[in-house]
Amino acid sequence: MSIASVIASAAEFRAAGTDLSERRRSGVSAGPLIDILSSGESGIAWGVDGAATIGALTTIAAIAADAHVAAAYPGMAASAQGLATPQVRHLATLGGNLAQRSRCWYFRNPHIDCLKKRGSECPARSGNHLYGVAFDLGDCVAPHPSTMAAALLAYDAHVVTNRRDGLTIVDLLGDGSNGRADHALAPGEMITKIVLPAPLAGERAAYKRAISRTYAEWPLVEVCARAAIADGKFQVVRLVAGGIAAVPLRLSACERALHGKAANEAAIAEATRLAAIGAKPLPMTAYKLDLLEGLVRDLLESLAA
pTM for the complete prediction? Predict the structure, then answer.
């Protein structure tokens, strides 16, 4: 089989394979593979304006440990530091984290059909959806698994593929309404690099997650927050939550409520009450809204301190 025919088929790209290997062991994924770990872009390049371009094959551990990233994009660094385990971070790549497949246990079961496996319905909706969405945006109720996608959305990053340039995170992942796809990458299309804009003067950022055990667990809810504060007021605010919807969500109502307001307890409390606007929790996921509000408040207080 030629390379062109492999790419045109249902072949999957493999970098570190931290997600792909598990899917193949379970029988959810099969077919030809294209190894890209030694041929793609890795490393972090810095522009004269302080903006960063990160190769898609850069490991999560490299991002987490980079002092320059921590200074320029602290929310990115903290998100990378909180992801998975040291062993996974050492191998997993940024591009792979963005392009990973659903963690839903129905999708991961090779004997159960679901929307993402050409089925006609989402079995989690009427089944066990304890870890499902609290913002019901479409047919699939599994939250998007990428921690780094939430961080990159908070930083207004753009994604470059071998076919397209300048994709936003929303372009890449959609709006959550398409329950049959985890991303908008076409067969044979792979992420090559991620471009971040230059950081704002004086901005600060933080990341927190709520998990069901103290270590090595997928987040129930996670939030990446950025803020630029001047003269005691919020000038710029970005709040992005993961674990609550089929895609990472910007908490736009919270952001608007804080813009131009004093960075004090009263403003933060009012904005926190808006975090769950638009939520449509499932019967088993209303608890996520309490976690979301708690994380938002904690992060905003830490940024305003």
Answer: 0.94
